[in-house]
Every structure is written in structure tokens, then in C-alpha cells.
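Re-run requested by the PI after the first attempt was lost when the workstation crashed. Everything re-entered from the original request form. Ligand of interest: pyridoxal-5'-phosphate.
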Amino acid sequence: MSKITRQQCIEMDLKDPLSSYRKHFSLPENTCYLNGNSLGVRPIAAKQRVQDVVEREWGEDLIRSWNTNDWIHLPRRLGDKISTIIGAQAGEVIVADSTSVNLFKLAAAAIKLNPGRRKIITEPGNFPTDLYILQGLKNFLGDQVELVVCPVDEIPDAIDEDTALVVLTHVHYKTGRMLDMSDMTSRAHNKGALILWDLSHSAGAVPVKLNDVNADLAIGCGYKYLNGGPGAPAFLYVAKRHQSTLEQPLSGWFGHSNAFAMLDDYQPAPGIERTLCGTTSVIGASVLEVGVDIMANADMAQIRKKSIAMADLFIELVESYCDGFGFTLASPKDAAIRGSQVSLIHPQGFAIMQALIARNIIGDYRAPDILRFGFTPLYLRYVDIWDCVDALANIMSEESWNSEEFKKLTRVT
Ligand SMILES: Cc1ncc(COP(=O)(O)O)c(C=O)c1O
């Protein structure tokens, strides 16, 4: 079979219906950025937005901005926009805190929503913060909670009458494997359990239909496929049917039904606002809004189509140009169960990734042996995929990864 050429990739780019989105993003010259699954790139308009929020809204309007520039409704306004990306209704999503903190709030709330049940089930190898937060919650609540860590394919059978909550990441951060959200949600519900989905690698990456699958709770990052910037605030979702009874433990004043009445006693807000804790990170949320606006305006069916095409192209190129170099595929080959990334396994993964990064081909490495490549259809081109695999093949054939400079472990990989 003949190998796909660079010219063929250029021709694919010419026919790409999403190609006009690239101009909304600031990409450094001569860089192939395949790490939008970890930190999305900067929307061009983010710079102007930061300047405006810092100079005018903060600098000139000062505290009046809570009303005049509507800072007070920023978490909800942004949540409503994100709800359109993840198949929820307005009033079911809000922007707040970090993904980790939101997981704590909602997992603790779920235990109370499902009284008389003790088990929280999750999978080993889930993103570390998800495991750590659940361990922390278990330690905090003692015998009220039993944490069951069970291989994902065995979870449907492990859910029982004592299960309060199942916590799963929809698209796995290492392998990119995508779970069947509809099936897993109904299996949890059949046993009376609630389910909480971590959408960090899904929101803006793959179609998500929280309402259609009847999901209970969800959380996710703002700085990956939503392009909200480093440390952007996160989002959370609570299905309408749970909102009036949901009690979350971080009962701060922003979740109060009337924060500025300055009352001594906590009274939760009636809707999704009860999941808020303290003051919104206004600058962070304002920048996130720029990324969300671009994403909310794009066609998710087209994004998914291009994401699959890019990932399939990457796999085919690696198979044809990198054969014999010791890579194995860590991600599903079947696009139907794969998110928007492809991971390769190689025992020298760290050094190989450093050698790629030295050539401005940016992916990342996850210990002990995974190289991750993320596909972000709004700003990546097919030719970027070709250039990435071409560089990978060169690094392997020349063994340039085998140099001391690429073996020095950095704090962040
Ligand atoms: C699945 C998943 N959950 C949570 C997080 C991170 O959460 P936080 O923003 O609180 O650091 C990540 C970060 O990569 C992630 O991949």
C-alpha cells in the first residue's frame, strides 16, 4: 500500500470545512501543537479581552463592575454557554473553582443525595486527582463511605444496591479510550446509583449529550479543548432534577440564595448557583469566555469528523513511517471508542517526546511510557499531523532521542 504523502495532506486541508477557525488562534511560527488535550492554545481575542477586563473593568470601573460589567453573573452566563457544548440545558452548568474542587463538592453531595448507600466506585488508573479527591473524601467521611476501585469493564457488575455513586472519566487521559456514557449511566441508574462524569477530555472534543443520557452530575476543565488558558476555572453540571435537594459541603457565600443580604445562616440558592463557593476568578473566567464563545459557535459534528480523520491519519502514518521503531498503540484503533487523542507506548517515551519538542512538535509524556498526541480540529491541519510523524520517524531512524539532553527529567512532563 502506498504511503500517504505530505502533498495529499495539504490537499485534505484545502477541503477542510473548519479551516477558517485557525485564524482565531495564536500559534507560534513553525510549531505543530498536538497538546490541546492538555493546554489549549490562546485565542487571538483573549489578549484584547484581558486588556479590557484589567484596564477598563477593573482599572476604571473598579468595584462597580460587579453590576456594570455583570461580573456577578459571569459563572452562570459562561455555564449556560458551556451547556450547549455538552448537551445540557441553561441553568444546569456553572463555572467555578477547579475540576478537583468541583469533584469534591459533587461527590460529597452525591453521598447525601443517595442516603443509606456507602459505595463510591471508580476505576484504577483514572486521572490521579479524581482518585486522590475520592480518597480524601473517604478519609474525611470515614465509615460513611467505601471507595471501590475496580477495572472499568467490571464496573457494570460491581454496581450494587449499596452503590451511591459511580465516578468515571468519559475519555481516559492516558489512552484516549471513550466510554459509552449512555450505557454506563443506565447501568448505574438500574441499581439506583448516581453517576458523575469527568468531561475534562470530552468538552469541546467529542459530542456529549448529558441530558439525552440522563446523566446526574459532571465536571470538567476549562483549559483543554475549551481554550480557556492556563489554570482557567472549571465547570460543573447538576441535572435539574437534583438541584433542589443537592447539598454541597463548601457552602460559601456565593452559593447563598441572597449573598448580599449578609445573613448569618446559610440558605442555598435555589438552582445551580448553590454549587458556587467563593468569589469568581473574574480575569480567568473572562478569558475562558473567549475560548468558549469560539467553541460554542463551531459545529460539533464537523469537529468530531475531523478529529477522527486526524487521529486515523496519525495512526496510519505511524504504521507506515515508524514501523519497526518499537511503538505500540495505547489508544483504541476503533474511532467509535476513542476521544480526540492518540497515545503511543514506547519504553523511551520521555526522551523521544523531548526530541520532538526540540523540533517544535509539541505533544506530551505521561509516565511510565506514554507519548500523547491531541487533535484539536479548530486549529490543527492535516499537514501538521504529517510533519509530526515525519519528525518522529527521523528522530527514531537517526536515534537523535538517544542524547543526554533529552533524558533530563523535567518537573512537568
Ligand atoms: C481527567 C482529568 N480530570 C481532572 C484534571 C485536572 O483537574 P484540575 O484542573 O483541578 O487540576 C485533569 C487534568 O489534566 C484531567 O485530565
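Saved to the shared folder this time. The first strand starts at residue 25 and ends at 26.
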